[in-house]
Amino acid sequence: EGRETRLRVVLRVRPLTCTETRRGDQRVVHSLGDGAVHVSAARHDATFGFSAVFDAGASQEAVFEGSGMRQLVELAMDGFSCTVFAFGQTGSGKTYTLMGPLAQSDTQPASPALLGLMQRSFTYLLEQSRSRGSDLALSASYLEIYNEQIRDLLSPGPPCALPLRWSKTRGFYVENQLSVEFESLEAIVSLLLQGSQRRRTSAHALNRHSSRSHALLTIHVRSRAHHPPSWVPQAGACPGKQGTLCFVDLAGSERVKETGSSGELSVEANSINRSLLALGHCISLLAKPRGKRTHIPYRDSKLTRLLARSLGGSGVTLMVACISPSSRCLSETLSTLHYASRARRVTTRP
């Protein structure tokens, strides 16, 4: 608490897809073990280091266990504001890492081995919550940022834009967003799947189910205040704690010419790329030593405003960088790796 903590950054390299293998793409990313990864291609020869690297063979379980996700759940229960976000090129496996297969629904659940960080964290949170007794109140809110508009994914009816406000006590917050209480795994997974189905996705040349919005699912963990029995002398009430665990599935960065997008799709791509650029800019400035920092431009996009607390100061953050090992994705892969390496230098004071 209050100590400078570095952002924890882990890397996940997805397997080559059937299309890439048929096309004869080369693997240009190789894990060297011990958190290091090597990129070797014509004119490129670079090594990057991370807290952990999960290569193509790593299971969803291994990513959960090795990423530090359990500690994040525990910290949220202790009243910290915790964030995990997945980023990388479109089609690099972000949504799969967080949620598992896209085809799952209430009626057609995914096989347990394929479930992502979110469902595994919910399970662990509820187990911990039961073992700590019933003094925890859990609720969830789920938003998407689509074309720089914030929309509630849980409120019934057609999605309408919600205003983003700022206050001295709360920082940036979304007005009128719905927060739904839950007590069971079925309830929270059902909220997740319901919200995800309302998210904007579309097909283009790189990805059949490309997320066209950034999605933020926040779990609010409130521990109720304890009042000691009246006969205990001088014991004050123990104040309640409020922690959050926020999962951020960023829309993929993409080059419009490679996705073949035009019209509305290219407008979406531009607002996605603009907000990712704003995020990258904030991260580069935050990576400088504290004494040399200038103003951090959180107000440049809705995404950076909503992530201001987790990046810039008082939160605990885990970043999962997702990349493709294919030679054809080399430039995007390198940009994700540089971005992730820079993020490792960011420090927060939870």
UniProtKB/TrEMBL annotation:
Pfam families, per this entry?
A: Kinesin
GO CC list: microtubule; microtubule associated complex
Question: What range(s) does the Kinesin motor domain occupy?
Answer: 6-346
Q: Provide the protein name.
A: Kinesin-like protein
Q: Which GO terms fall under molecular function for this chain's record?
A: ATP binding; microtubule binding; microtubule motor activity
Q: Which family does it belong to?
A: Belongs to the TRAFAC class myosin-kinesin ATPase superfamily. Kinesin family.
Chain residues that bind ATP? G88, Q89, T90, G91, S92, G93, K94, T95
Q: Tell me the keywords, alphabetical order.
A: ATP-binding, Cytoplasm, Cytoskeleton, Microtubule, Motor protein, Nucleotide-binding
Q: What GO terms in the biological process aspect are recorded for it? A: microtubule-based movement; mitotic spindle organization; spindle elongation
InterPro entries membership: Kinesin-like_fam, Kinesin_motor_CS, Kinesin_motor_dom, Kinesin_motor_dom_sf, P-loop_NTPase
Gene3D superfamilies the UniProt entry points to: Kinesin motor domain
Location in or out of the cell:
Cytoplasm, Cytoskeleton
Which species does this protein come from?
Erythrocercus mccallii
SUPFAM superfamilies in alphabetical order: P-loop containing nucleoside triphosphate hydrolases
As recorded in Swiss-Prot or TrEMBL, the protein's gene is named Kif12
